[in-house]
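Figure 3 (text version): structure tokens given as input.
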């Protein structure tokens, strides 16, 4: 997610904004910029790269004495990292500039309409559409809040925007919908920001903005308006006791927990602008230039590999495309049969994993097409693939990958639906049913995550003693069992193995004893009865069993962890969240370094 800070006060705005952006750096970004008004002129300074590049640029400009301005760190979602795509974005007349965090889903249509009105665009971003849209309305209505209200009501998607305009020196206007925006209230100075750390050293008095509110700040005043009626809204002032570090985690104890809890929004952001359930349609222009794959070779590492394994059956069932899923470090060196019309799908959160990148390069050298599925815009895999679909999960800070897998699963569901419909083998009703399920999923996750964390805390206290643990699943849930084991291993340092439940009697069951708990995934599907009989074999040998299942499982287990019964394969998102939280609470209980586990790096850019 991007970082936003707006300042209106008595200090030099450049310094306050730069320091504020530095406190937002942890969120990850690829460019930065700021806008100030001085001597009735709008000044916009932007730079690709880190904030020091921006500082270098500012050093060569006339010293700014402005005491009002807006700043931004950009995590690219539309448009590669570059100075032109960096925020703030001025309007055509250079009378206003704005910064934005979020995704404007209907930016293509709005851009076309604005171009027909004579607007010329200088960037590839969805954000610049907002600048021109508000500017057009400002010319028509002559008043900033009216113009913002009229413009933002045409926008579909998520936004947190902050704007300065020559129409109101010393004022900052801001608004939000689905992206966070907070006011900081100081003495003779006020702030607006995407995150509390940006202004925490100056004030601990904050006002949390709600969706579709418009706010104005000046050095000595602030007001919150209803985004449609522009009626004044009374807002509660809150005192923040967090330190900067805990504020960077939005109050969560670790980035990993914050990122697990962000998963409902991650699903929304990954779906943003890509579905139309009324027409049972998936909108993936990124695929327009790629032919329907004859066969799919999914290549990835670690958690991304597990996401690919999870999606295999879905591609085969919904799109009737044969799928091979290979660990990238094996794919590179194995004898591979890749034929004309096959497609390599390189799945990577960072887009920089050495083995996955090497696999991509080898496939391309052999003349095969590669599609990247990445989270980081402009990453090596994204740039070198023949096409790329971005997962739009926002920066993932914790080494243990959580929300990235959630976004990869969401994106691959969309790919399977898209290709299934393109191939004419997927019923429209099935596609519509899945899309509706996906649209409902964030609310279900939001309702369940807190309770899941409490259950995970209880189970962690009971099982943190174990030295080894099995994770068992069948079908789509076998890859989730692998992921549950990886999560537990990498952050709690407890040995864990993910296994296909049907394989237990082919050897592993020899390990079962009271010291070796089994964590089983038992969705209510055709394989449940077989899985339950596998579990009874474990229990009769004294192995403790934690069974994750929908309500109503009438079975004798050591622990039954109930989660809502939703349809396959969407229940995979609930099972994944439970596994993530179990591993998280085990590591917390054991006092491990959850976000920076020993021996691990966030992106494995070496072989
Ligand atoms: C998962 O928690 C690990 N951090 C690791 O397995 C990771 O998934 C793997 O290195 C792949 O990273 P990528 O998705 O950035 O390619």
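Below: residues designed for each position.
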């Amino acid at each position: 997610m991007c970082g936003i800070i707006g300042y209106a006060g008595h200090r030099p705005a450049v310094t306050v904004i730069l320091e504020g952006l530095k406190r937002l750096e942890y969120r990850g970004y690829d460019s930065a910029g700021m806008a100030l008004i001085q001597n009735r002129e709008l000044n916009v300074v932007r730079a690709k790269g880190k904030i020091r590049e921006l500082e270098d640029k500012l050093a060569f400009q006339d010293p700014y004495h402005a005491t009002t301005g807006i700043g931004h760190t950009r995590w690219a979602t539309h448009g590669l990292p570059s100075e032109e795509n960096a925020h703030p974005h001025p309007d055509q007349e250079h009378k206003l500039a704005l910064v934005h965090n979020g995704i404007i889903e209907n930016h293509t249509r709005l851009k076309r309409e604005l171009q027909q009105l004579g607007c010329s665009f200088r960037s590839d971003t969805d954000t610049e559409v907002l600048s021109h849209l508000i500017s057009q309305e400002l010319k028509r209505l002559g008043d900033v809040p009216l113009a913002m209200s009229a413009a933002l009501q045409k926008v579909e998607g998520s936004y947190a925007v902050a704007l300065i305009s020559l129409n109101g020196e010393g004022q900052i206007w801001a608004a939000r919908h689905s992206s966070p925006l907070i006011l900081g209230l100081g003495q003779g100075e006020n702030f607006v920001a995407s995150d509390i750390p940006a202004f925490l050293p100056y004030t601990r008095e904050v006002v949390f903005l709600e969706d579709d509110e418009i706010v104005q700040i000046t050095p000595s005043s602030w007001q919150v308006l209803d985004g449609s009626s522009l009626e004044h809204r009374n807002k509660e002032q809150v005192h923040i006791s967090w330190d900067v570090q805990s504020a960077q985690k939005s109050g969560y104890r670790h980035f990993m927990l914050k990122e697990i809890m962000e998963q409902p929004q991650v699903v929304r952001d990954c779906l943003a602008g890509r579905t139309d359930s009324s027409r049972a349609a998936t909108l993936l222009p990124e695929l327009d230039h790629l032919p329907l794959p004859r066969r799919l070779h999914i290549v990835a590492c670690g958690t991304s590999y597990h996401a690919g394994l999870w999606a295999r059956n879905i591609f085969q069932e919904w799109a009737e495309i044969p799928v091979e899923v290979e660990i990238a470090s094996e794919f590179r060196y194995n004898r591979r049969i890749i034929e004309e019309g096959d497609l390599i799908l390189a799945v990577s959160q960072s887009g920089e994993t050495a083995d996955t990148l090497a696999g991509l390069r080898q496939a391309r050298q052999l003349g095969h097409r590669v599609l990247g599925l990445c989270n980081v815009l402009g990453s090596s895999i994204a740039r070198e693939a023949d096409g790329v679909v971005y997962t739009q999960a926002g920066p993932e800070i914790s080494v243990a990958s959580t929300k990235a897998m959630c976004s990869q699963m969401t994106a691959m569901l969309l790919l399977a639906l898209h290709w299934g419909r393109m191939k004419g083998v997927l019923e429209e009703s099935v596609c519509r049913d899945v899309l509706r399920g996906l649209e409902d999923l964030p609310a279900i996750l939001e309702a369940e995550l807190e309770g899941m964390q409490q259950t995970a805390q209880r189970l962690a206290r009971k099982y943190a003693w174990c030295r080894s643990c099995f994770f068992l699943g069948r079908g789509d849930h076998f890859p989730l069992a692998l992921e549950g084991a990886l999560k537990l291993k990498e952050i709690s340092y407890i040995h864990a193995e993910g296994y296909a439940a049907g394989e237990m009697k082919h050897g592993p069951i020899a390990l079962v004893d009271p010291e070796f708990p089994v964590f089983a995934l038992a969705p209510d599907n055709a394989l449940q009865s077989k899985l339950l009989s596998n579990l009874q074999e474990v229990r009769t040998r004294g192995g403790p069993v934690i069974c994750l299942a929908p309500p109503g499982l009438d079975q004798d287990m050591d622990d039954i962890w109930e989660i809502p019964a939703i349809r396959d394969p969407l229940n995979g998102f609930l099972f994944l969240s439970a596994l993530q939280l179990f591993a998280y609470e085990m590591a917390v209980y054991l006092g491990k370094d959850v976000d920076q586990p020993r021996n691990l790096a966030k992106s494995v850019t070496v072989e």
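The CA atoms of residues 511 and 543 lie 9 Å apart.
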